[in-house]
Amino acid sequence: MVAxxxxxxxxxxxxxxxxxxxxxVTRLDMILPDGTHHSVVLREHAARHDxxxxxxxxQALKTIHAAGLAVPKPLACDDxxxxxxxxxxxMEFVDGSTQIPEDEAGxxxxxxxxxxxxxxxxxxxxxxxxxxVLDPIPELLEWLPExxxxxxxxxxxxxxxxxxxxxxxxxxxxxxxxxxxxWDEVGSIRAVIDWEDACIGDPNADVAFSCLELRxxxxxxxxxxxxxxxxxxxxxxxxxxxxxxAYAGSHxxxxxxxxxxxxxxxxxxxxxxxxxxxxxxxxxxx
Length: 286
Known about the structure:
This protein is α+β, with helices and mostly antiparallel strands. It is about 40% helix and about 20% strand. The longest helix has 29 residues, at about 205-230.
C-alpha cells in the first residue's frame, strides 16, 4: 500500500488504533524519499461494518474536507480487495487526543456545539447520495424497549401524524460523540472522524445523539450545556427534539449489547438511556 500510494517511501512502523467497532483502523508511519516522517491512517471496512459503501464514504469526506470543516484529508480508497481482504480508505493522520480534561469539559462542550452548528450550516452541494433521516417514528417503535412501562408512549407514537421533518435539511454526522473528536493541546477541535453514518435530514437527530453521549460521561449538566450552546445558534424545537431523544435512547438500549462494553459501563449507559426515554415520553405525552 505504501509502495503504491507513496512511491519511494519506506514503511517504518504501524500501530492498530482502538476505540471503534465498525472498522479496523491502523496508523502507518513512513519515511518519505526526502527523509521526512509522514503518518497516515488506514480504515478498513471489517466484516461487521454497516455504514456507507466505500465510494460514498470517500466522496463525502472529500466534499466535507473541501468545505473547510476540520476532518482528516482523504487520500485514496480501494474496494478491489487486491491488497487487503476488505475495502479500505486511506487518510491523513491527525495528531491529538480524544480525551476531555475534567476542568476543561465546559469549554470543550461549547466547542462541540459550535462545530455541530457549523456542520449543519454546510452547503449540501457535491455530496454523494446520502440517506435521508427525516422521521424517527418507524425505527423508534421497533427499538423501544419491550416493557409495559412504555405502553403509553408506544400508543402515543402510533397515534402521531405528520412526524416527518419538513424544515431545512442539513448534513448530519450521525455519530457525533467525544471519541470521534480529536483535540489539540489548547482545546481546539483538530478533526472529527468516522463519517460512515453521515446523512441528510433533521438536525435534531444529531443534537439528540450528542446529548445522550455527553450525558453518559458528563451527566445531565454536560448534556444541558451542549443543548443550550447549540440552541443559542439554532433554535431547537422541543417536540421534535423529544422524538429524537426517545429514538437515541431506544437505539442505544437496543444496540449497546454489541458494542463490547465493560459490564459496569453498560449498566450505567442502559440506565441513562432509559432516563432519556422517560424524559422524552413526558414531552411527547403533552
